[in-house]
Amino acid sequence: MDKSTQIELEAAAFRRLVSHLQKNTHVQNIDLMILADFCRNCLAKWYMAEAVEQGIAMDYEQAREVVYGMPYEEWKYKFQTEATAEQLAAFDRKQQAKLQ
Fold this sequence. Notes:
It is a single chain. This protein starts with a helix and ends with a helix. It has one domain (about 5-100): Orthogonal Bundle (SMc04008-like fold), CATH 1.10.3340.10. It has about 100 residues and is mostly helical. Helices cover about 75% and strands about 0% of the residues. The protein is globular. Helix 2 (about 30-35) packs parallel to helix 6.
C-alpha cells in the first residue's frame, strides 16, 4: 500500500470513529476511560497536538468541537451524566493499576 492510500484510510477511519462517538452520546467519557484508557477529550487533545505540530493554529476548544460535533459545553449539558460511585471506583482502580 502506498503512503497516500494509507493516509486516506487512516483519515477515513478517524472520521468513522468520531462519527461513532458523536452518535453514541449515551457512552460516557468515564466509561471510555475505564475500558479503553482514552476518551473524547483525549482524542481532541491528540487532534490539537497534530494540528499544532503541522503549524495549524488550534486550541483545545476548537479540537473538542471537531470531536464532539458541537461546543463541549453544549454536549456536556445535553448528554453528560454524573459519574456513579461504581464508575469512579473503577476509574480509580484503573489509575492505581497503571501506577504499579
